[in-house]
Structures are given as structure tokens and as C-alpha cells.
User: What shape does this take?
Amino acid sequence: MTEPEPPDTYESATARLEAIIKRLDSGEAGLRETLELCKEGRALVERCAAELEAVGQGLEELRLDELVARLEAGAAAQGS
Assistant: This one.
């Protein structure tokens, strides 16, 4: 069994995970295929989790930048 190309987006990774889950739930996968699907699924879950973490950090940084800007604007308005 050849390794499938890793999905290039979060959305395609989650779609592939859904396909893996459907295949496993069908009960039609043999033992070796089940093992391969589980390995692929684990790698996809780890990748998606890392991407979600990165996006969460980016959002937090944006919120912090926005807070700093508001605080600086408030301090400038009080200094006038």
C-alpha cells in the first residue's frame, strides 16, 4: 500500500479524517489496512491539532496587540 499524499489544508485533512473514520466504521477494512488507516489518522489529528494551536496563538497575539493599542490610545488621550 503506497503512502497517500498528505492533505495540504486543514479542511482537506479533516475531510480525509472523516473518510478514514467512515472506512473504519464500515468494518470492511482488513487488519493491515486498519493499522495503516489508524497511523494516517493519528498523523492527521496531530497535524490538525498543531494547526489549531498555531491559529489560536495568532488570534491571541492579535487580541494582545489590539489591547496594547487601546491602552496606548487611552494613555495618549489622558496625557492630552
In short: The chain has a mean pLDDT of 89. The chain has one domain: 10-79. The longest helix spans residues 31-79. The radius of gyration is 22 Å.
